[in-house]
């Protein structure tokens, strides 16, 4: 399905009935990443999956996609669907978008799950990596995407989940260079949302990959000890939907039920 928003097309899917769950994919992903979970989830729930700006079948909106602009596009879809309350699950960049959403629309959230994601802003090293990648991607897009993707997995996972990773990589390569750069710029600009996340009164869940090389997992765990934020540590890395598929599904079902 497609919605017109600020002169561009926003693509989304809407399946099932019951409590609504909104899924937001990560950088170089799209809404198809959730397909494997739909049969189990749509038995009792309404599942909405949205292609974020510059990803999947959703168009770009300029050359910088701030997390707030992406959150506004998500809100436009949910308003169009006349949804008032829902759970939101965001993977990696999708978690950053979910936090930007929560800043303005917290009352709509029954629960917020940051999956392999963080409320922290980029540190200087991460910002420098994004800037360098954006320069390189203009002349060497495919190689940069392949390298970015490979770095998300351990050597063991690259062998064990080769078919799933190859399929996800083909989806990643469909992202336009403009979409790549605009989202990197948006992530680079985002602010720390620790206080916001801790202050939210809805249910909160952090899903953390024990071997995740992208996030400072230990710091997140320490900061959420003795709070109302539930933390679930899965055995593998940054891509729990591939590397810990069954455990991830069980955690989501438990979270929303």
UniProtKB/TrEMBL annotation:
InterPro entries: AB_hydrolase_1, AB_hydrolase_fold, AB_hydrolase_sf. Signal peptide: none annotated. Keywords: Hydrolase. GO terms for molecular function: hydrolase activity. The keyword Glycoprotein does not apply. Residues 20-244 form the AB hydrolase-1 domain. This is Alpha/beta hydrolase. It comes from Oceanihabitans sediminis. The lineage of its organism: Bacteria, Pseudomonadati, Bacteroidota, Flavobacteriia, Flavobacteriales.
């Amino acid at each position: 399905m497609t919605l017109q928003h600020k002169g561009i097309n926003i693509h989304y899917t809407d399946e099932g009935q019951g409590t609504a769950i909104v899924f937001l994919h990560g950088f170089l992903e799209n809404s198809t990443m959730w397909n494997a979970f739909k049969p189990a989830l749509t038995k009792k729930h309404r599942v909405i999956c949205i292609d974020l700006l510059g990803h999947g079948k959703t168009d770009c909106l300029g050359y910088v996609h701030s997390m707030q602009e992406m959150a506004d596009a998500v809100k436009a879809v949910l308003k169009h669907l006349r949804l008032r309350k829902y759970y939101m699950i965001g993977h990696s960049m999708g978690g950053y978008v979910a936090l930007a959403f929560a800043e303005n629309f917290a009352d709509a959230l029954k629960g917020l799950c940051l999956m392999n994601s963080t409320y922290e802003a980029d540190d200087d090293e991460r910002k420098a990596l994004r800037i360098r990648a954006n320069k390189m991607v203009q002349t060497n897009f495919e190689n940069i995407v392949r390298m970015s993707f490979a770095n998300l997995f351990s050597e063991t996972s690259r062998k064990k989940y080769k078919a799933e990773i190859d399929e996800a990589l083909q989806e990643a390569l469909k992202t336009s260079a403009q979409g790549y750069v605009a989202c990197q710029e948006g992530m680079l600009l985002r602010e720390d949302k620790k206080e916001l996340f801790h202050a939210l009164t809805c249910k909160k869940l952090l899903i953390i990959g024990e071997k995740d090389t992208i996030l400072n997992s230990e710091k997140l765990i320490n900061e959420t000890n003795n709070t109302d934020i539930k933390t679930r540590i899965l055995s593998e890395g940054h891509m729990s939907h591939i590397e810990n598929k069954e455990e991830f599904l069980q955690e989501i079902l438990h979270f929303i039920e």
